[in-house]
Amino acid sequence: MSPLPKRALLAITSYHGPFYPNGDPTGLYYTEALHPYTVLTEAGFQVDLASETGEYGIDPHSVNKSAISDADALVYNDKKSEFNQQLAHIKKASDLDPTAYGLFFASAGHGTLFDYPKASGLISIAESVWARGGIVSAVCHAPAILPHIKDQKTGKSIINGRNVTGFTDKGEVELNLMDKIKELGLVPIAQGATQAGATYKEPEGAFDVYTVVDGRLVTGANPPSAHATAVKAVEAFGKL
What we know:
Largest sheet: 7 strands, mixed
Distance between the termini: 7 Å
Number of helices: 9
Mean pLDDT: 97
Helix content: 25-40%
Low-confidence stretches: none
Radius of gyration: 16 Å
Order of helices and strands: EHEHHEEHHEEHHHEEEH
C-alpha cells in the first residue's frame, strides 16, 4: 500500500485563445479530463482540478458530435454533473499544497502547448509528487509539461532517459495543424520529448489507443487513450 495521499491533481490548461486556422479557440479537450476524472474517482481517489491561472475554456472541437460519445455528451450538457461542478470551481495551482497529492495527471487539448511549458504552479506540484515517489501522468498534448518537470536529484527533466508517448506529428498533419503549430512557434510533443532526453514512442495510427508506462511515469498518445492512461496510472500507484 502506498504511503502517499490517495489524492490526485488533475491539471487543466488555462489557455483559451485563437488557434485553429478558421479562428476558433483551443483550450481543454473535454474528455481528456472527464475520462481520467471518472477513472480516478471510481478508483477511490479524491480529485482536485486546477489550472495555472484558476481559469479554463473548452476547445469547441472536443465537444462536437464527431468528437464526443452520446454518454459523454450527456455529462457535458448537464451543468449539474459532478465533473462540470468541479470544472466550475477549478482551483489555481499556486493556491494548493503540493504535498497533498500522490498522483499528478495532466489533461490536454492544444491549449497545453501554450501554457504548460511555463506553468510554474502546476510544475511545482508535479515535481513534489515525483520527489516523494508518486505518479506523474499525461495524455495527448499534455506531455508538453513533462520536459519542464525536474527531478530534484538530477536537475534534469523527469523524462530524461525514459520512454514516453504523446500526440504524434502525423496526427497534427492529419488535422492540418502542423503548419499552424510551427507558425506560432509551439513545440510538438515528439520534439519536446526528444530534446529533454526521452525516447518518444508512438502508435501505428495517430488515434489508436496507446499508452507507455516507464516506472512512475505514465503517458498516453491521444484522446481515445485518456481512459486507458488513467487506468495505467492508477495501476502504477497501486504498485508503489
